Amino acid sequence: MIDIYVERCKDGEYWKREGYDTPEEIRSFLVDRVDRKQEFYLTPDEAVDMGFMDAVLGNAEFETITSLRHTE
User: Fold this and answer.
1) How many whole angstroms separate alpha carbon 27 and alpha carbon 3?
2) Which domain holds residue 30?
3) In Å, how far from its chain's centre is CA 28?
4) Is the pLDDT of residue 72 over 60?
C-alpha cells in the first residue's frame, strides 16, 4: 500500500517544497508515519498539496462536479 501512496504522491508540491527529491525519501517518510502506529489527519488542502487528492470540490477552480471531470 505504501508503494501505491508513493506513486500517487510523488508529484505533490509538498514533497518538492520540503526537499524530498526521490520516491525513496517519500516512502521513508510514509513508513515512519505508519510505524508510529498513530493516526494522522490531513485537511483537504493538505491532501491535495501532498498529492493524495487531485482537487477539493468547492475550491475556486473546481466549483462543481462537472468541473472535476477530465475531458479529452
Assistant:
1) 7
2) 2-68
3) 15
4) no
For 61, the 3-state DSSP assignment is coil
Could you read off the pLDDT of 24-61 as tens digits, one per residue?
A: 999 999 999 889 988 888 999 999 999 998 888 887 77
**pLDDT, tens only, 10-28:** 989 999 999 999 999 999 9
- Given a contact cutoff of 8 angstroms between Cβ atoms, the answer to whether 70 and 33 are in contact is no
Closest CA to 69 of 51, 48, 54: 54
Measured in whole angstroms, how far is the alpha carbon of residue 33 from the centre of its chain?
A: 14
Full-model pTM: 0.73
Q: What is the tally of structural domains in the chain?
A: 1
